[in-house]
Structure formats: C-alpha cells, structure tokens
Specification:
The complex is a heterodimer of chains A (464) and B (202). Chain A has helices spanning 5-11, 15-39, 43-59, 61-74, 85-99, 110-114, 117-123, 133-140, 157-166, 176-193, 219-226, 244-258, 293-298, 312-316, 318-323, 334-344, 346-349, 365-369, 376-389, 401-408, 410-419, 434-441, 452-463; strands spanning 78-82, 103-106, 127-130, 196-199, 203-205, 211-215, 229-235, 239-240, 265-269, 283-289. With 464 residues, chain A is α/β, with parallel strands linked by helices. In chain A, strands 1-10-7-4-2-3 form a 6-stranded parallel beta sheet, with helices on both faces. In chain A, strands 8-5-6-9 form a 4-stranded mixed beta sheet. Chain A is elongated, with a radius of gyration of 27 Å. Classes of the chains: A alpha/beta (464), B alpha/beta (202). At the A-B interface, helix 2, helix 3, helix 4, strand 1 and helix 8 of A face helix 1, helix 6, strand 9 and strand 10 of B.
Chain lengths: 464, 202
C-alpha cells in the first residue's frame, strides 16, 4: 500500500524524538490552559474578539497597508514592498550593499525562513547569523526548525553539545546552562561586530505605525541595540487596526504560545533611533512581503491570515505530537501549517503539499486553542475538497470506485442489499484476521437488515 | 520598487473585491484582559514586587538592601546612568562604577543601572524607552540590570501601559530576566540579555 509523504515521515521518526516532542508539547499546552482559565473568566470570548480584530484587519488591508506605510515614512523609516521571496531577498541584499555591509545578525522571523534569506545572503558573501538559541543551533547543523516557537523541539542536549564541540564553542558539555552561556558569549560579540540587524514583527499598528516585536531571549533587542541599521521583514497580514488591540493580542500571544502572561521582551518601535540615544539603528527599513499571501487572501481560506504564530495548535495537535514538525516539509508545521503551507505554494505548487490537510483527525482541538479563533478544521476540509476537485492523487486513501458504482446503479444496489443477508450466516469466529476476531469475540454484529426500508416503502405505496 | 507596491496593492484589492460585507471592527472593552480581582485595592509598589518575583525578577525600595544584594553576589563593577549617579554614589562605596558605557568592553560590566520610563504592576514589567534610558546596551548586556523606577510612573495594568506608550520611537517592556527553554524545554535565564532583573523604586 502506498502512503502519503507526511505518513511516511511520521513513521520514520525516532521513538526518542517522538517522546520528547510529545512530552514538551503536552506540558506547554497544559500550562497554557491552566493560565488562561485561572486568570480569565471567559478566555474563549477573548479569542473570539481577537479573531474578529484580525479578520477585520485582513479584510481591510487595502486601506490599512497604505495607512501603515504613511505612518512609518512619517516616523523616518523607509518602506519597501516585495511580491516574491526572491524579490525580498534581493531587496535585503541591496540595502546591505548600499551600506557596504557584510555582517548581519538576525532575530527569529518566520518570513526570513520562508524566503530562505540566510542561505541567499550566504551565497552572496554576507554572513547572516541566527541569534535565537534554537535557530542558531538549527543554522550550525544545517537543519530545519520543527516548531514555530520551539525550533529545536526535536533535538536533545547531547546532539546540541556535539554540535557545539564541532563548531569550536568548547569541549563536549551537555548541561543546558553551559550550552546557553556558551552561545551567549559567542553571539554577543557577533552582534557588536554586525552592521545590520534583521527582525520580523509580531504586529504592526495601522493607527500609529508602531511595530511590536516579542522575544524571550532578548536577541531582537540586542540586534536593535548593537547595530546601526534595522531591516524588518513583515508579512502583509501582520497589521492590526489600533494600538488599543495590542493589549488583547499580547496577553493572548504570551499565554497561548509559551504559557507566559507576557513574553519577556516586548518592543514597540516606531522608527530609527533619535540623536539622543547612543545605541541602535540610525536607519530603518521595513519590507512588506507578499510571497503568496494575496493568493491566500483571495482564497476561501483567508481566515488563516489571522494567525499570530503562537504555536498553540501545534502543541495540542495529536497528529503533530506523533509526526513532529519535519513531516510537514514546510516552514509552518502543525495544523496552521497544514492550511498555510499548501496555500503558500501557490496555484501550481498546491499539489506538492495537498497531503497536509488530510493529516488531521478533524478533532477540532486546534480551533479550540487558537488565540484568534481560526476554524482550522473547516479550512482543512475546504483544502481537501480543493485537492479532490483538482484531481490530485491521494495515496493511501481507500479506493471508493466500487462504492460509487454500487451507489449509482439501483439494480446493483438492490442486489447487494439482498445478497448481503448472507452476512447473517457468516461464521465470524473463523475470521482470518486475528485483530478482527479478537474484536468480535467481545461483540455481536447486529443482524443485517438491508432492504427493509425499501420493502416498507413499496408496501406503503401499494396500500395507497 | 513602486511597481511592486502597486502590484501588491492591486492583488489585495482584487482579493478583497468579492467580499460582500467586510468584517467589522469589534467593539470590546480591554478591561476583559485585566486580572482586576487581583489588582483591586492593592498598593502598586507591593503588587509590582509580587508580580516581578513571579517572573524571577526582584524589587527593592531600599537602596541599602539593593547595594548589599549586589555586594553579596560579588557584582562590584558596573555602569550607572550619570543622571542617577549623584544620588546613588554615596551608597556604592567599594564598587567600581563607570558613567560612560564602553561597547568594546561589554563583558567587564557585572551590572548596569539605568532609569526606567515606568513599570506595569499587573505583569511585573519594567518599561524602558529611548528618552529615559541612557543606553540600550547598558540595560541589556551586563548580567544584572537595575532599573530605577519612579513610583508615580507605575501603570496598574497592561491596557493602561499600552495607552501610555507615548511618542518615544522605542519602548521596550522587560518582564523578568532574559530566558529560553529551547534546550529540552528546560528554563535557563540570561541568554542574550540580563540573567538578573532588578528594580529600585524611588
């Protein structure tokens, strides 16, 4: 039997990795739920409001994008637009070349993963160093992140210690404290030597042009304290209407993602630094990235653009917990990725990832935990339907041809109904499959009653 | 460049044009995200101290206790915002305190003392901005950050702090020390920023 790519990847996952993904996602999910429900009377109402705020924002991007652009320019930032991944990479390179810059420090940004910026810059002679601890480890290992918030959820301390030893960061030591302090020592001098700091943004307020950036490690702050030029790569869906909405969204983001009331560092940036402040970027560039988002906006799955990348749906998902992130073959894994990743592949690439929406039991847990209330199971169904309409092959799905034939031919149907009465006389205790035999030992099949309704119908007609 | 802008805007307009009725901006009260029962009737400084402790920060109202704490830990060399120093100098006998921060020697400073623009009692957060905080690096790179917070600048809750962001180009909220759980989900403090976050309320 053939299987879908995601099933094959999940089946090949090492048991220790599966165990560590399972345990840490479960623990985070439980802490998240406890915090939300202990502290708020009605956290579900908060999720609904946050969802409405973001839905409103994405359905009014035609007004909000120019508004944000005007605010940012008035605050002294330069605003650029990139339709594609390639264009976004080129524009970053162009900004760096114009400054004669060769060194960049990067805070974690999902968009930069999406456009594979670090590799692109590396090929053009620019060192683009990841500074988030997890992303740094992913980078030195030439690996890929497997979780939106916890990029190395699939790695254990021994693997990391070996990588650090290989990279000359010290003799083998797998104590997490030592690993962290070695990264601290190594990276702080990299920040101070870099010319450009690159970040994403979690939110951008259309009202003020304020971009909001959250990290726990303080790496984005270091990028913006040590370097002279700030480049922010921002997906066009990151807009929120007002500053007022930030209190709601930040409270939900911290609690949903990492079970914190607030993420440690929440930075609000409206432009390059002023002359009085000695540290930080004098030059600020904002690049708004489309890269498939307008296609998503045009589709019947535009709700997915509400996503604030908290990772709560990954943590709760029974499929993600078993499969881990790499099985999704995408920057965005888990339930959100199962919707977003095939869509971001564009009209022609959809088939490549059409298996992802099928990797769900539609249990609805992702919808229940989503801080912006995205109806992920509905969107998965729409994408399954789309794959079916486009005739995309679905290996592993049981053939339905015989059933379709039966159900569309009245004569064949009636014959089958009658013939199936033979099932009432089958010696089920002799079933050749042990599992089925074990099952039926505890249970009795109900008597086959096929055709009874038709009998009743025809007698009723005659009686009239 | 402008071409790409037009292209994206055109695609956005095209994507949105079939929508009959666009989602309205909900009217809600951000009071709903405030843990009001916890805050009611509390002294802001006491509450801030309690909430900072929850995120592994620590608050002092007595400068002697702060100095004793730094001394006991062996944190004797640091930076202090020159504006604060005249009032603090007398308490820091036996310390080496620099009033200029040298970015080529970030590892020399065990602590950095800077002014905060405020704090948020509800979340145990220190608020820094570019106008009030003398150096971004001095509040970030030393192992210990001491934020000097004026009592009157403490916001009670998060929505109030959002409303009070003000015109500064850069505001940062620091809720506890820098941390990560990237390695096997184990919490480690002091990744890129301070491993110890202290506040002195004056």
């Amino acid at each position: 039997m053939k299987f879908q790519p995601i099933d094959l990847a999940a089946a090949g996952l090492r048991p220790d990795k599966r165990a560590s993904v399972y345990q840490s996602t479960k623990a985070t999910h439980e802490k998240r739920t406890k915090l939300l429900f202990e502290q708020y009377n009605d956290p579900d109402q908060l999720r609904r409001w946050a969802g409405e705020v973001k839905q409103h924002a994405i359905e009014n991007l035609d007004a909000y994008l120019p508004a944000v652009e005007a605010k940012l320019k008035a605050n002294g930032a330069q605003v650029h637009w990139a339709s594609t991944a390639e264009s976004a990479c080129q524009q970053v390179l162009k900004i760096m070349r114009a400054r004669g810059a060769t060194k960049m420090v990067k805070a974690k940004t999902m968009v930069s993963e999406e456009i594979e910026l670090a590799d692109y810059l590396g090929r053009h002679g620019i060192e683009a160093l990841e500074t988030d601890l997890g992303e740094f480890i992913v980078q030195i290992d030439h690996d890929h992140p497997s979780h939106i918030v916890r990029p190395i959820i699939h790695k254990n301390r021994r693997e990391i210690a070996r990588s650090f030893e290989r990279e000359g960061l010290g003799a083998y030591n797998d104590d997490p404290q030592t690993i962290t302090s070695r990264a601290r020592q190594f990276l702080r001098h990299k920040y101070l030597a870099a010319d450009v700091g690159l970040t994403g943004a979690n939110f951008v307020s259309a009202e003020s042009g304020r971009m909001v950036l959250v990290t726990n490690e303080g790496n984005s702050r270091f990028c913006l304290a040590a370097t002279k030029c700030h480049i922010a790569l921002i997906g066009i869906e990151k807009i929120v209407p007002r500053d007022y909405d930030l209190a709601l969204l930040l409270n939900l983001l911290g609690r949903s993602g990492t079970a914190q009331e607030l993420t440690v560092y929440t930075e609000f940036i409206t432009g390059p630094k002023t002359a009085e402040q000695p540290d930080g970027p004098e030059e600020m560039h904002v690049i708004f990235v489309d890269n498939g988002r307008t296609d998503v906006l045009e589709s019947d799955c535009r709700e997915i653009l509400r996503c604030i990348r908290c990772g709560a749906c990954l943590n709760v998902c029974p499929v993600y917990r078993q499969a881990s992130g790499h099985a999704y073959r995408s920057v965005y894994p888990g339930p959100v990725g199962a919707v977003l990743s095939p869509l971001l592949e564009g009209k022609h690439g959809f088939a490549k990832k059409a298996d992802l929406p099928k990797a769900s039991s539609l249990c609805g847990a992702c919808h229940e935990v989503c801080p912006v209330n995205i109806p992920i199971p509905d969107l998965l169904l729409r994408l399954r339907n789309r794959a079916n309409q486009e005739g995309i092959a679905s290996p592993g799905t049981p053939p339905m041809g015989a059933w379709a034939l039966l159900a569309s031919q009245p004569l064949a149907w009636r014959t089958a109904l009658v013939a199936s009465q033979v099932m009432n006389h089958l010696p089920t205790n002799l079933l050749p499959i042990p599992a089925l035999r074990a099952w039926q030992e505890e249970r009795v099949l109900p008597e086959w009653r096929g055709g009874k309704f038709r009998q009743w119908m025809s007698q009723r007609r005659k009686a009239k | 460049m402008n071409e790409e802008r037009e292209q994206i805007m055109m695609r956005v307009r095209r994507a949105l044009s079939p929508i009959q009725e666009r989602a309205a901006l909900p009217r809600y009260d951000s009071e709903m995200v405030v843990q009001r029962a916890m805050l009611a009737g509390r002294d802001r400084v006491e509450l801030l101290a309690e909430r900072m402790q929850r995120v592994n920060g620590q608050l002092f109202t007595d400068v002697h206790a702060l100095v004793a704490h730094l001394s006991a830990q062996g944190w004797k060399h640091g930076y202090c915002d020159p504006v604060l120093w005249p009032a603090l100098a007398v308490h820091f006998q036996g310390f080496t305190v620099e009033l200029e921060f040298d970015r080529t020697r970030v590892d020399d400073y065990a602590f950095g003392i800077t002014r905060a623009a405020g704090a948020i009692a509800e979340s145990g957060t220190i608020v820094l901005n570019d106008t009030t905080t003398s150096r971004r690096l001095a509040a970030l790179t030393p192992w210990v950050h001491v934020a000097v917070v004026e009592r009157a600048t403490i916001f009670l809750d998060v929505p109030a702090a959002i409303a009070g962001l003000g015109p500064d180009r850069n505001v940062i909220w620091c809720t506890g020390p820098s941390k990560t759980a990237d390695v096997e989900g184990i919490l480690i403090e002091g990744v890129h920023g301070p491993g110890v976050q202290l506040a002195l309320v004056v």
